[in-house]
Predict the structure.
Amino acid sequence: MFAWIEEELQALPTQEPALRELRLLREACYRLPCSPDLYGLIHYDFETDNVFFDAQTQACSVIDFDDAVYHWYLMDVVQALDSLQDEMSPGDLPAKQAVFLEGYRSKFPLDEAFFPAMPLFRRFAGLYKYARIARSVQERWDNEPEWMVSLRQKLARGQSRQMEKSL
């Protein structure tokens, strides 16, 4: 993913701050342990709208694997916990996060010593999102409808906010 982000950002003007962030994140991630119990194929888009609960069977099913990538497993945990934060009231959040972590641990062990890397993964997710938006904002079509022009402007504003949050 680092290579894709770099390729996208280098193709765009005025992306030096994002490229600096990329270099910092790449260095930090390369220093992380990368063993089979910490690193492997992850969903990457592990959020509430990609998980379905079947009340009859009491089972969860996960969908939408088009963003799957090799990364640290904790990245999926970060994405899921952040997704819960967007969906829950602040009072309910700690209990829901604890339930998620308990369920995750029932299927896959989590090394608590690795949890300090969570802010790093949040920064990575922010930069990846920024690069995807930057790419989208640059696309142009002949005879674009007004809604597309408005959407591009909205994405550009979001891109600026995303970079400010990431840095």
